[in-house]
Every structure is written in C-alpha cells, then in structure tokens.
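To the wet lab folks,

You asked to see what we're planning to order before we commit. Fair enough. Below is the target structure as tokens, and below that is the sequence we designed to fit it. If anything looks off to you, flag it before the synthesis order goes out.
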C-alpha cells in the first residue's frame, strides 16, 4: 500500500514539473512586444459626448438586458468546440459585455482560457484586446 502511494506522489511531482516546464517553453511573451510596436500609431479616438444620454432614475438594475459573451476572445480548440468572432465584430453587432481571462506573465498580461489545452485566442496580448474595444 505504501508503495502505491509513493508512486502516485512521484507521478504527481513529475507531472507538475513537466507542466511548469512546458508553460515556460510555450509562453515566452515575445508576441506582445511586436503587437505593441505595430499598433501604437493606430490608436482610435472617438467623441464620446455624442453617445451621452440620460437614464431614467426609476429603472432598476434588473430592468436592463445587456448582451454579452463568455470567453469573448475564444477560438475553437481540440477540447472546446466553440468560438467567437473578433472583439470588433462582437461590439459592432451589439455585444456590450465581454469577458477576458487575463493571465499575468513576467513581461505582459495575456488573454487565453487554459494553458496548453485551450489557448487559442482572437487577441493574445491584453493591450491589443483593449485597443480593439475602443470604438
């Protein structure tokens, strides 16, 4: 019995170390620097004063319906068989609530669902995603 527990713990340790090594190899954050350099001159500016309107004070929060998407950045992967269009299209079609799963890396903040298994995304770098949401 002790030998089974020993092998199980050894397996877990090897699995966790392998997982950490794979994450370090795959996610190196070089993509975000490239995107930030190329998109810094293409910032969108808008006049938000034309979008201003008054809200009736009698309305409660549950009187509103806001269209939103779960994992708004998601692209289809082997394990998850759904995807969303890019953020610009979602906002154009009336989506007003988006969800971004932000992972803090050493150099940049990146957006994806699960490491290695489900990391396909419409926008990988958080600054890039936020730029796309400016209308």
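Sequence we intend to order:
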């Amino acid at each position: 019995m002790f030998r089974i527990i020993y092998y199980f713990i050894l397996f877990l340790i090897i699995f966790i170390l392998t997982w950490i090594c794979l994450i370090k190899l795959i996610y190196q954050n070089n993509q975000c620097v490239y995107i930030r350099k190329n998109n810094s001159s293409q910032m969108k500016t808008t006049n938000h004063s034309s979008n201003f309107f008054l809200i009736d004070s009698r309305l409660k929060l549950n009187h509103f319906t806001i269209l939103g998407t779960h994992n708004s950045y998601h692209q289809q992967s082997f394990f998850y068989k759904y995807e969303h269009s890019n953020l610009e299209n979602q906002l154009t079609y009336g989506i007003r609530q988006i969800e971004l799963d932000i992972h803090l890396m050493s150099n940049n903040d990146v957006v994806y669902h699960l490491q290695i298994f489900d990391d396909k995304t419409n926008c990988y770098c958080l600054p890039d995603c936020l730029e796309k949401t400016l209308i």
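Structural context that might help your review: The beta strands are 102-104, 109-111. The two ends are 63 Å apart (CA to CA).

Thanks,
Computational group
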